[in-house]
Amino acid sequence: MTDQTPTALPADADWWRRAAIYQVYIRSFADGDGDGTGDIAGLRSRLQYLAHLGIDAIWINPWYPSPLADGGYDVSDYRDIHPAYGTLDEAKQLITEAHAVGLRIILDIVPNHTSDQHAWFQQALAASPGSPERDRFIFRDGKGEDGSQPPNDWHAAFGGPTWTRTEDGQWYLHLFAPEQPDLNWDNQEVRAEFESVLRFWFDLGVDGFRIDVAHGMVKDPALPDLGLTEFSVLTGEGQPDHPHWDRDGLHDIFRSWRAIADSYPDPRVFVAEAHVRPHRMPEYLRPDQLHTAFNFDFLKCPLDAGKLREVIDRSITSLAAVGAPATWVLSNHDETRHVTRYGRADTGVQALFRDRPIPTDLALGTRRARAAALLMLSLPGGAYVYQGEELGLYEVEDIPEELLQDPIWERSGHTLRGRDGCRVPLPWTGDTPPFGFSTSVLATPWLPQPKDWKSYTAEANQADRTSMLQLYRSALRLRRTNPNLRGEDFRWLDSPADTLLFERGNGVLCAVNLSAEPILLPAGAGPLLASGPLSEDGGLLPPDTTVLLQRN
Ligand code: NOJ
C-alpha cells in the first residue's frame, strides 16, 4: 500500500458526503500531445483550473486500453492506460499532482463487461464450450434444432439482440454492444480479479471508483425470456425480479468491495451508476456497501417545481434511512446537455432521433441551466459537474453523420444519433477550433467543435464577470465555505406555486422561481448569490432564476 505525498488533501473521512465532483471525459478534456484526443498530459496541464473552480474531486471516465467500441467502456486491460491517453507513469504523476492541489481522483470501473479484445474473452473464444475460460463469460447454446436461435429474447441497450454467435455455434451475452461481452459474476475468478483490480488502483493512491452498470452485473442463471420489444431494455429497468437488472445477488459483491475500500487508512469511496427504482436505491447504500449513487431521477426530472420537490424529498429521505447522503447531477456523457434540454418545451430527457430535431431556445436554456446549477449546488449532499457545463456548453446536434462515433448510431440503424453531441472536445482559449483544446493549432479534434464556441471558451468565460464559469466558481466557493451549506440540514419553507424555497442550516435560504411571473423575495434576508439579475430594488425574483439568501 502506498500513500501519496505531497498532499494537500484535508484529513476528512467524510469528504464524500458533500463533495462536488467534476467529471472528466478524458478524450475530450484537454489534448497535451496535439493529436486531437484528450489525454493525461492535457488533464495535468489543467489541474490548476480545476482546483480554482472549487471542486473536491475529479471522476475520470475509463482511461484503460480499449478498442473504443463504446468510448472506453470496452476495457481490454484494467491495469493500464490507453496509449492515446498516456502511460501508467503519467497516471501516477497525475494522482500525486492532483492530491498536491487538494483534488481527489475517482476512476471508472467497468465490471459488467470487458472488451471482446480482453485476453480473457480471446481465451474464451479459443476454448471449447463448457471450459473454465468460457465460464468467465455467459456462453450458451442457441435455441432450435440447430441452435441457430439466440438463447433468449433479450435486447441490447444500444439496439439489436443481446446475443452474438461464435464460430463454433455457441452464443455469448452482451447487454450492450457485441464488443462488450458480459462477465459471469457467479464465477469466483471474476470476483477475485476485480477485487485485485480495485487494490491495484487503490494502492496507487486512487480515492474511489464510479461503478459502471452497477445494477446489471448479476443475472438470473435461468436467463428467462423477457417478452420485451426492441429498445425497451432500459425501460425494463423498473421491473421487479428482472433477470438482469437490480438483482439481490449484487449486494454480496458490493459488501466485499466495501471491505477492501475500508482496509485503507484514507477512505476510498464508491459511487454507483445504478438505474433502479427509487425505493431500491437504499439497498445499495447501506453502511457496509457503496457510499453514494448518481441521482438520475434528478437529472431526468423536468424543470417543474412540483416534480423537483418530489424528487428532492424522496432522494433525501429515502437515503437518510440508511445514513447515506443524496447526490445531484444535471448532465453527464450519456445525456443531452442540460442547457439544450432546458431550452425545449419538454425539459425532461429525450432520445435524439436523426430526423426529429427538437426546437430549442438556447438563451432560455442557459438562463434555466444557471438556475438549476445554483439549485443543485445549494442542496445537501454530493454534486456532480460534467465538464463543460461550467462553460455553458450546449449539445452539438449537427455533427456530420459520417463523423458520429457512438455505437448507438450504427446499432439503431442510423435512427438515433447517440451521445456524441455532449462529448465534443472542450473549448479553452482563442477564436477558432481547436480553441486551445490541443497543444497544436493544426490538430483536428476527434469530434468537431462548433465555430461559435469562441464565446464559450474558459478564457471568454473568465473575462466575463457574469459568465457561467463565474457562477459555478461562486456557488462552489459558498458551498465549501458557508457553514450552513456545509452541513446536512435542509427544510422546505412555504412559497408560491411553481417555485421552491428551502432553508439550509440556520439562515441560508434558496429560492427558485420556475413560474412565469416574478415573485417577492422572502423578507428579512439579503442575497448571497443569484443565477441572474434580480429586480432593481432587489425585492423580486424573476422567472427562471435562483437566489441564495442569508437571513439578516
Ligand atoms: C454506462 C456508461 O455511462 C455508458 O457510457 C456506457 O455506454 C454504458 N454504461 C456501458 O458500459
From TrEMBL:
GO MF terms, alphabetically ordered: hydrolase activity
Keywords: Hydrolase
Regions annotated as coiled coil: none
CDD domains with a match to the protein in the record: AmyAc_OligoGlu_TS
Tagged with keyword Hydrolase: yes
Classification via InterPro entries: DUF3459, GH, GH13_cat_dom, O16G_dom_2
Family recorded in the similarity comment: Belongs to the glycosyl hydrolase 13 family.
Name listed for the protein in its UniProt record: Glycoside hydrolase family 13 protein
